[in-house]
Design brief:
Layout: E1 2-14, H1 18-29, E2 34-35, E3 42-44, E4 53-59, E5 64-71, H2 74-83, E6 87-92, E7 95-99, E8 105-110, H3 115-121, E9 123-125
Parallel strand pairs: 1-4, 5-8
Antiparallel strand pairs: 1-5, 1-9, 2-3, 3-4, 6-7, 7-8
Length: about 130
């Protein structure tokens, strides 16, 4: 048994376009764009979607959106999603990057939200 939940919406933006994207998304969503200390590749859009971490991520790739699914068991959640048709395309630290059927990227990450929020909102998988 393990638990997981959709926790994060990331707006992936080429590095040199982050300032303009941060200004746009901050204004479009009505929230401040704040650099994340110690994680320079991220600009937080806190409050854009209550209950979800929303941020701009600087990438060395094409612009896109991707989601993170947080879990209390990386191996079990990755295996569950692979069984549903996803394909693993990479790993970085404790993050597993998958490509879902249809081509969308998602990451499986360790729990990073408030433990009580995770407990209340995560789905329990058998």
């Amino acid at each position: 048994m393990h638990r997981s939940r959709f926790s994060t919406l990331l707006i992936d933006v080429p590095r040199d376009e982050v300032p303009a994207a941060a200004t746009f998304w901050s204004s479009a969503l009505g929230v401040p764009a704040t650099p994340v200390p110690g994680e320079e590749q991220f600009t937080s859009l806190k409050g854009a979607f209550p209950g979800l971490v929303t941020a701009i991520q600087a990438v060395d790739d094409a612009p896109r959106f991707h989601i993170d699914i947080e879990t209390d068991d990386l191996d079990a959640e990755t295996d569950r999603l692979l069984g549903l048709g996803a394909v693993e395309v990479g790993r970085w630290l404790d993050c597993r990057t998958l490509r879902a059927p249809g081509g969308h990227l998602l990451c499986v990450i360790p729990v990073h939200s408030d433990p009580e929020e995770f407990r209340q909102s995560a789905t329990v998988w058998q």
